[in-house]
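Reminder: ligand-aware prediction takes two inputs, not one.
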Amino acid sequence: MRLLTTVAEFRAARAQVKGSLGFVPTMGYLHQGHMELVRRARKENDTVAASIFVNPTQFGPSEDLAAYPRDFDRDRAMLEKEGCDLLFYPGAEEVYPPGFDTYIEMGRIAQPLEGVARPGHFRGVATVVAKLFNVVQPTRAYFGQKDGQQVAVVKKMVRDLDFPLEIVVVPTVREPDGLAMSSRNVYLKPLERQAATVLWRALSRARDLYERGERDAEALREEVRRVLDSEPLARTEYVSLADAETLEEVDHVTRPVMVSLVVRMGATRLIDNIILG
Ligand code: PAF
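Here is what comes back for the chain with pantoate:
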């Protein structure tokens, strides 16, 4: 695997790639969820590239940018083992040089859900993803369904701005007890880790009801909230049942919807979702 830390170095390596290039953008501290993206990219492309960059512009002032977990040597070994060919690992000044002042402002898709809780987050995500796409020039880019609104935002940006690439969405990888894999799970204390299974129980309950014919969105939301409220350590931030493409809340499930939720477990903010229909 070749390690490239500047845009110029990556562009030179990219120029030598023949055939298709699959790209997995990450913020590092990799887990099996990321590895699944790399495996899928490996299967579907001639060459695989990944990036590791903890993007400061997608963190709010009171968020965990400084504390965000990092372990470059481990990440590098994991990517190498999975057959990644090119690793882009730029420093903050390489991505945002002095005087940087151009951002991608997403429209309505970035307003609800995480857009309310984390103002400016998707402006930072869209900007860095667009920059990475311009440098890496992938044939296909791989994203996990776990960050459901991020998937919708990136797809919309690619469509609206005519990026010549395909977005591949990979199902969420879960621990055996259902907890979605996330770099932030390391923040959970042992009791919180046990309690965190409530997210998957709540989403599974919505899926069961849907499979038994429930189509009333508010009934589904209420049932998800009820399961979450049964866990004393969980503080529910939001439960949403929204059109999977536009993220507008729905009254009835007549087309694919994303059931998404955010729960605070102590100091940790956990996010998860499933698609119904
Ligand atoms: O999902 C992530 O890890 C990040 O939001 C991404 C897509 C790498 C952009 O910084």
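The beta strands are 2-4, 21-26, 47-52, 86-88, 140-144, 166-170, 234-243, 257-265, 268-276. The first helix runs from residue 7 to 15. We will return to this case in the review session.
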